[in-house]
């Protein structure tokens, strides 16, 4: 399996340019189609906007709404050009679409119709007060989310892969969703954090990887004084990992998203591209 349809969540910032290049590099790798998505917003739907316009003359309200719409459109055109430039340089087909960011369902619907989405841990909606979290997208979309670091990074990624494994459903889902990266990697490491020294990668898992043409390096880290997320980050640094594949642990509770400790720490400060699945 390869990724054939890749979405990249775009904005007009320098980080958006990096995401466009990253997406174009991956699209070139798998001969995939690249789609850029820009989140728009309506001024009147933002929190408090209706109250802030109360009592203003109609001409002033019209001017505020037009200025807002103009700002959103200008930012979307910058993002569109970033994606076009990256796709052209990589020689891949691309398109661009604007989707309402006032409610997350519109973007989630797009993600459910793609093989892979690339986005930051948190994406603010341009000129709006809404934000879309990668964790929410991963929980709701049913597919893999590739979370990019906030700081500078550069493709290629996925040449030195670390798989965080604990035998759970989430870990198994991440493993399967990450096959295109795993099979194309130069190095594949499987990490189990086990202070007791038990519960390491078993023979069945090793044979599964080998039957896919992968010869993994199996690691059991039995550090007793470190949080599991700290162990993962330390192993990533020691192995010079450029892609972490991990299950996302947590659940939505009413309107609050409750994440497991490891997932929360990794998403708080993404050290390197992170492929998440729930």
Q: What portion of the residues fall into strands of 2 or more residues?
A: 25-35%
Largest sheet: 10 strands, mixed
Reported by name, the CATH topology of the largest domain is Rossmann fold
Helical coverage, percent range: 40-55%
CATH superfamily of the largest domain: HUPs
Strand order, sheet with most strands:
3-2-1-4-7-14-11-8-9-10
Shape field: globular
How many individual β-strands?
A: 14
Poorly predicted regions: none
Protein name: Nucleotide-binding universal stress UspA family protein
Family: Belongs to the universal stress protein A family.
Domain UspA: 223-276
InterPro entries: Universal_stress_UspA, UspA
Concise structural overview:
By secondary structure, the chain is of the alpha/beta class. It has helices at residues 14-30, 49-52, 58-90, 105-111, 134-141, 169-177, 179-184, 203-211, 228-239, 261-268; strands spanning 5-10, 33-40, 94-100, 116-120, 122-124, 131-133, 145-148, 160-164, 187-193, 217-221, 243-247, 250-253, 256-259, 274-277.
3D architecture notes:
With 278 residues, the chain is α/β, with parallel strands linked by helices. The protein folds into 2 domains: 5-148, 3-Layer(aba) Sandwich (Rossmann fold), CATH 3.40.50; 160-276, HUPs (Rossmann fold), CATH 3.40.50.620. The protein is 41% helix and 25% strand. The protein is built from 10 helices and 14 strands. It has helices spanning 14-30, 49-52, 58-90, 105-111, 134-141, 169-177, 179-184, 203-211, 228-239, 261-268; strands spanning 5-10, 33-40, 94-100, 116-120, 122-124, 131-133, 145-148, 160-164, 187-193, 217-221, 243-247, 250-253, 256-259, 274-277. The strands form 3 sheets. It has a 10-stranded mixed sheet, sandwiched between helices. Helix 1 (14-30) packs parallel to helix 3 (58-90). The longest helix has 33 residues, at 58-90. The two termini are 19 Å apart. The relative contact order is 0.15. The mean pLDDT is 86. It comes from Phenylobacterium haematophilum. This is Nucleotide-binding universal stress UspA family protein. Residues 223-276 form the UspA domain. Pfam families: Usp (PF00582).
């Amino acid at each position: 399996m390869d990724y054939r349809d890749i979405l990249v969540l775009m904005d007009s910032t320098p980080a958006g340019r990096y995401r466009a290049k990253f997406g174009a590099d991956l699209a070139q790798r798998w001969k995939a189609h690249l789609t850029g998505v820009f989140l728009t917003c309506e001024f009147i739907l933002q929190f408090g906007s209706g109250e802030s316009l109360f009592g203003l003359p109609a001409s002033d309200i019209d001017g505020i709404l037009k200025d807002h719409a103009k700002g959103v459109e200008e930012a979307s055109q910058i993002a569109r050009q970033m994606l076009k430039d990256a796709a052209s340089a990589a020689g891949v087909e691309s398109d661009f679409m604007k989707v309402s960011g006032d409610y997350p369902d519109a973007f989630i619907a797009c993600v459910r119709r793609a093989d892979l989405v690339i986005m930051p841990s948190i994406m603010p909606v341009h000129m709006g007060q809404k934000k879309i979290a990668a964790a929410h997208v991963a929980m709701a979309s049913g597919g893999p989310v590739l979370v990019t670091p906030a700081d500078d990074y550069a493709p290629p990624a996925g040449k030195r892969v670390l798989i965080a494994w604990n035998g759970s459903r989430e870990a198994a889902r991440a493993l399967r969703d990450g096959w295109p990266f795993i099979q194309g990697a130069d190095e594949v490491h499987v990490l189990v954090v086990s202070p007791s020294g038990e519960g390491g990668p078993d023979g069945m898992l090793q044979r599964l990887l080998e039957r896919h043409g992968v010869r993994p390096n199996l690691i059991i880290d039995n550090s007793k004084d470190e949080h599991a997320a700290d162990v993962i980050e330390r192993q990533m640094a020691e192995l010079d990992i450029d892609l972490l594949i991990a299950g996302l642990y947590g659940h939505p509770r009413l309107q609050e998203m409750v994440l497991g400790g490891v997932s929360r720490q990794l998403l708080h400060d993404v050290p390197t591209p992170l492929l998440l699945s729930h």
